[in-house]
Structures are given as C-alpha cells and as structure tokens.
Design brief:
Pfam families: YCII. This is Transcription initiation protein. Belongs to the YciI family. By secondary structure, the chain is α+β, with helices and mostly antiparallel strands. It has a single domain, classed as Dimeric alpha+beta barrel (Alpha-Beta Plaits), CATH 3.30.70. A four-stranded antiparallel beta sheet has the order 2-5-1-6. The longest helix has 10 residues. The chain is globular and about 50 Å long. 15% of the residues are buried.
C-alpha cells in the first residue's frame, strides 16, 4: 500500500538530547529496500501559491493554504505492507522528533 508522508514542523519538538537519526542514512536505507519511492524537501512557504475558483472566477493568492505555525516542509511516498510498517518507517525519520509526520494512504493505488 502506498502512503504519502507529509513532513512537518512542530512547535513542540522532542526534548530528548540524544542524537537524531541522520536523514541521509534514513533516505539511503528506505530507498535501497524499496519502501521510499520518492521524496523531497519543499521550498519555503513564501514560495507557495494558493489557487481557488469561486463563482467561475480564478483566485490566486501568495502564501500557503492555511496560516499555521506548523508548516509542511517535505514529503515522501512510501510503499509499505500496511499502516504498521508505515508507522515504523515514520518513527525512524529524523523529523519524527524535531517535527511531525502525517501518513495518508492513497485512495487509489495508481502511482
């Protein structure tokens, strides 16, 4: 099953002082075993553009969809047997401690 994993900041990161996992090691490990299909960091929210259509009119605004303190900073597409495996992959991501990760299964597995 494929999952989109949003990588987000968090206003309350882990306070444990133990070293965080290395992102390059996490990427290499999950790429080599086929669990990470694709992923990337995103440009800052200042580069975001929000697009809407209301009453047939195109509305384009600068900035992110939502004004929040937590920001989506990247994403990964995971291929996992089930949610338990996806949670384990997310648990080992460095941003699990410094931020937060949101897992969403694809509604249709056509990627």
């Amino acid at each position: 099953m494929k999952y989109l994993m949003f990588v987000c900041t968090d206003t309350a990161p882990d306070t444990d002082t133990a070293p965080e996992p290395d992102i390059e090691v996490w990427v290499a490990d999950n790429d080599s075993n086929g669990r990470r299909l694709k992923g990337n960091a995103l440009a800052p929210t200042s580069a975001a553009t929000t697009v809407r259509v209301r009453d047939g009119e195109l509305l384009v605004s600068d900035g992110p969809f939502a004004e929040t303190k937590e920001v989506i900073v990247g994403f990964d597409i995971l291929e996992c047997a089930d949610l338990d495996e996806a949670i384990e992959v997310a648990r080992t991501h460095p941003m699990a401690r410094g931020g937060r990760l949101e897992l969403r299964p694809f509604a249709v597995d056509e990627f």
